[in-house]
Specification:
Rossmann fold, 4 helices, 7 strands
Length: 179
């Protein structure tokens, strides 16, 4: 949370919220001045998370959203930070997800990815692949931190408009060697 600069008043999305481990921590950190969007594509996860938030008294500061594999369905201009923790490697349609995330980002908003430094088939995302896929959709890496063991945090912002693809059809997928 410290590396991400999560503080009172921020509006944050926990994409792939699952059980809400980060949702709860984010809600407490942003406080009543901020807001958390907890997004997942699995209805059962959202149902359980709803009950958890109500039990912890955090229901008013969190909006639950059911996304789609290619679209987190976040409101336009709603985010200062999008957080994807140990889930990017599970995304079936990364280019669609990243493209559809763009409208939700306010100017200067950041996208943070925490994942394992492993091949995708081993439940991780090689950092070069992550950089390549985000760059293909118009994001620029601003920071990279090695965390514990084989885990990392990568931060991105939207690139200048001239460096972004004009449409989803203009996205050039990354090659197997991640370039």
């Amino acid at each position: 949370m410290r590396l991400l600069g999560v503080k009172p008043g921020l509006d944050v999305a926990d994409i792939g919220a699952g059980s809400g481990y980060y949702t709860v921590r984010l809600a407490r950190r942003v406080g009543p001045q901020g807001h958390v969007f907890a997004e997942d594509i699995v209805p059962d996860y959202l149902d359980r998370l709803s009950r958890r938030l109500a039990g912890e008294g955090l229901g008013g500061s969190v909006t639950l959203l059911r996304g789609e594999p290619h679209d987190p369905r976040l409101p336009p201009g709603s985010l200062d930070l999008a957080l994807l923790v140990h889930m990017y490697h599970e995304v079936v349609q990364p280019y669609g997800l990243l493209w559809n995330l763009r409208p939700a980002l306010r100017p200067g908003a950041r996208v943070a990815v925490i994942d394992a430094r492993k091949e995708t088939a081993r439940h991780g995302t090689p950092p070069d692949l992550l950089r390549c896929e985000l760059a293909a959709v118009g994001y620029r890496q601003t920071a990279f931190y090695d965390l514990q063991e084989d885990t990392y945090l990568a931060l991105f912002v939207l690139a200048k408009p001239a460096d972004r693809p004009a449409s989803p059809d203009a996205i050039r997928p990354c090659s197997p060697d991640h370039s």
